[in-house]
Amino acid sequence: MNQSLNELLEQFNGHLNDAIEDTPLGTSLEESMRYSLEAGGKRIRPLLMLATIKMLDAQKLTSGMHVALALEMIHTYSLIHDDLPAMDDDDLRRGKPTNHTVYGEWLAILAGDALLTKAFEKIALTPYIDADIKVELIKKLSQASGHQGMVGGQTLDMQSEHQHIPLDILESIHVHKTGALIQFAIEAATIITSIRQTTAKQLIQFSQHLGVIFQIKDDLLDVYGDEAKLGKPVGSDVSNHKSTYVTLLGEQGAEQELQVHIQKAEAILDTLSMEFDTTNLKYLLTLFYQRQN
């Protein structure tokens, strides 16, 4: 990772370490929340948000930090719940035992619930952002993470297990389940910086390609990934009888579809580079399609 992104990541992780304060209740809830929130990972979504803010208006980085924390809390809660026996039933996440294997199912569920609600508190209490912008961010994050976004996509995904689904349904699953929070990362940056609509639309289109790239690569890694690097078993899609880009298009077809979206994303960045320094976004795009975990 380049120096600029490393600096953003260090700043973010510094804030993340203090994101969950203790309460006088004396329960293990905060410990369980921190266990998953601080479990590592590339922090792709908050980095994407912060890098976009830096590109558009670096003076707004402080304003965006709490929103980036909120986004990571939403993402982490979804992973805790996805790993539960009632859904994916995974024992490993990021190379560590999943939350429910350490703390038990009931506390894992509550830790996810608490992270979800904490995210909106973070935005509501964010300094340096006007109230109308906070309301817009809360609305967009609610839509991206709720029944119109991630949760709706996860529901369609679960309902589609053990059956062959057409490509358009698969695309709909991942636009909502995976793509919605990736789009929010970039759309939030355009809201925080109040950038003009033409630029915002270009960046949102870029984020939509990123979401597809992320999912196709995820499906490919489930076929040929290194379990030690992934931090979770490979082949789980097959064992769970899930339709994926690989099962529907074949490995070669999935690779070709991946390249189509990479080229479209690169074209958008080339256009934006006439006005902005897109170095960090180009690096993150590369990270999306070259990642090994």
Automatic annotation (TrEMBL):
Gene that specifies this protein: ispA
Q: Which SUPFAM superfamilies match?
A: Terpenoid synthases (SSF48576)
Listed under catalytic activity are:
isopentenyl diphosphate + (2E)-geranyl diphosphate = (2E,6E)-farnesyl diphosphate + diphosphate
Q: Which GO terms describe its cellular component?
A: cytoplasm
- Lineage: superkingdom: Bacteria
List the protein's name: Farnesyl diphosphate synthase
Q: What are the BP-aspect GO terms?
A: terpenoid biosynthetic process
**The organism of origin for this protein:** Staphylococcus intermedius NCTC 11048
By its UniProt entry, which CDD domains does this protein fall under?
Trans_IPPS_HT
Known EC number(s)? 2.5.1.10
Its needed co-factors are: Mg(2+)
NCBIfam families hit by this protein: FPPsyn
Q: Which UniProt keywords apply?
A: Isoprene biosynthesis, Magnesium, Metal-binding, Transferase
EC main class here is: transferase
What's the family?
Answer: Belongs to the FPP/GGPP synthase family.
Q: Which GO terms describe its molecular function?
A: (2E,6E)-farnesyl diphosphate synthase activity; metal ion binding
